[in-house]
Amino acid sequence: MPDMLLKLFEIEDDWRLLAEQKRRAITIRKPIGPEKHMLIDWVSDHFGAGWASEIDTAISNKPRTCFIAVKEATIIGFACYDATALGFFGPIGVEKSHRNQGTGKALMTACLLDMKLKGYGYAIVGAVEDTEYYKKTVGALEIPDSSPGIYATWVRDIK
């Protein structure tokens, strides 16, 4: 699976996706400290221990480098950056029953705009499964010879 490059300087400063989610009673925001354990557990339950480790990193960064989607006081999605490596976007996940409603795109946009506002010129999405989605949604480009990239020496829990 290749890595992809996103040109943050070409992403429009448009926060309307968050307003659209608000109309659906979904709030996109950064998590607060007391939510850390719940968020890590939620990500672990829905997406596995590897992503839970990454959300732990992102919520521990100062400032935080993650956003969550909340509906009726319940986490329904998350996205982060600077969790795998500096300049990397992801992981991102939305609970199955809440997919295809723009929540993932809103979470991704919040992260990418946050990165852009911090001065990043580019973002890397590592080990992309659906390259067409990133090409279509944010104009991402495949990075040649990037697989396995940073993940080549990743220690995996083999059971």
Describe the structure.
The chain is an alpha+beta fold. It has one domain: Aminopeptidase, CATH 3.40.630. About 35% of the residues lie in helices and about 20% in strands. The chain contains five helices and seven strands, in the order βαβααβββαβαβ. The protein has helices spanning about 15-25, 35-45, 50-60, 105-115, 130-140, and strands at about 5, 25-30, 65-70, 75-80, 90-95, 120-125, 140. Strands 2-3-4-5-6-1-7 form a seven-stranded mixed beta sheet, sandwiched between helices. Strand 5 (about 90-95), helix 4 and strand 6 (about 120-125) form a beta-alpha-beta unit. Helix 2 packs antiparallel against helix 3. The chain starts with a strand and ends in a 17-residue tail after the last strand. The model has no long low-confidence stretch (mean pLDDT about 95).
By secondary-structure content and strand pairing, the structural class works out as alpha+beta
Write down the secondary-structure element order: EHEHHEEEHEHE
What's the helix count?
5
Major sheet: size, sense and barrel closure? 7 strands, mixed
Shape descriptor reads: globular
Unreliable spans are none
The count of β-strands is 7
What level of helicity do the residues show? 25-40%
CATH topology: Aminopeptidase
Count of the separate structural domains? 1
Rounded mean pLDDT score: 95
Annotated CATH homologous superfamily: Gcn5-related N-acetyltransferase (GNAT)
Under CATH at level 1, the class stands as: Alpha Beta
